[in-house]
Amino acid sequence: MDSKIIIAAFLSFVPVLLLLGATEAHVEYGAYNISCPNAEAIVFQEMTQILATSPDLAGSLLRLHYVDCFVRGCEASILLNSTAGNTAEKDADMNKDVRGYDVIDRIKTKLEEACPGIVSCADIIALAARDSIRLSNGPNIPIGTGRRDGNGSSAADVPLNLPSANASIAQLISFFAKYNLTAKDLVVLSGAHTIGKAHCYSFSDRLYNYNGSGNSDPRLDASYKTLLSQECSPNDMTSLVPLDANNATAFDLGYYSGLTQMKGLLTSDAALLDDASTNSYVLRQANSTSPNEFFADFATSFMIMGKIGALTHSKGEIRRQCSAVNPPSPSPSPSPSPPPPPNNSAEKKNAFSSFFSVGVVLSYLLLQYY
């Protein structure tokens, strides 16, 4: 009999658990399975078409996700346009060569047609980056969705939260630690440079005036330095060069092989050889015959990065346009005789009573037939 009473009491409490659980919201796998079941398929379809004609954008969209997450969190602040009274992140000097905004806008348009007001711009960035990896022969990474969009963006935040391309290994490790990311996360996420390109001005000092010496960086392979000099003149502000000297269109181990060959393009790439732990990882991947370890490590670090500062629950909003915050809702017109508010408390009470009745009936049946 005692066990019957305990189980009956639990069943009577089930309606309460159901009511409480319905209010929860968080970043989770398949967050749009009910509200927009084709969301991820729509993103993947658009990305497939885009990268088929512009494969270089894969690296650009990975970078877009990175610069978004490290400044204010993964809440699409990088997408907001500047206004008359504010210079936004996208117009900061460090972000002047960030690309991919039109891709996000294109995907947002498709999603708004399918599910108006449901999918956030922050999730579109994350999914586009994820699909860029998959479509470049990299791993298919499961990521949580359900992020919401922020309502602010300031260029002043960028230099405080993004390391420069000339950062030392100590600076890089310290920077990543601010976000609870380890030296391993640093060297693993740097592997994203296996796809994409960089502008000449981001590394030209290594060719022509390293550390103000008027000479080139001695850590650059001589033949590679010659090739880069042919691609980039001293004041070149427009040309793009592959980040991976071996194969910049496939998500593979070529980046790490390039580092061991003194072909790391950016100072921050070459810096990975200056720390024992990051150096060890570079050498292991450069000598590996399989990308499996790197793929698994990258998936883990990528998922961690994608949760930095994510807005959930009632925080933030779902932007209608990714480049601007939603306008404030119009105030209701004043009415001389407003109708009395609906008796929500009575409705809630009735709903709860219905749930409670179910629990009581189940309890009764259990007591009769247990």
What would your notes on this structure say?
This protein is mainly alpha-helical. 47% of the residues lie in helices and 2% in strands. The chain contains 15 helices and two strands. It has helices at residues 2-21, 39-53, 57-70, 101-114, 121-134, 158-161, 169-177, 183-189, 204-208, 222-231, 254-260, 267-270, 276-286, 292-305, 344-369, and strands spanning 197-199, 240-242. It has a two-stranded antiparallel ribbon with strand order 1-2. Helix 1 runs antiparallel to helix 15 and helix 2 runs antiparallel to helix 4 (101-114). The longest helix is centred in the C-terminal third of the chain and has 26 residues, at 344-369. The chain is globular and about 70 Å long.
Helix content: 40-55%
Shape: globular
What is the C-alpha radius of gyration, as a whole number of Å?
26 Å
Determine the N-to-C terminus distance: 9 Å
The number of helical runs is 15
> Which spans have pLDDT < 50 for at least 5 consecutive residues?
1-25, 345-370
What's the total number of strands? 2
Mean pLDDT: 87
SSE order:
HHHHHHHHEHHEHHHHH
Assess the beta-strand content as a share of residues.
under 5%
Q: Report strand order across the widest sheet.
A: 1-2
Largest sheet: 2 strands, antiparallel
Structural class: mainly alpha
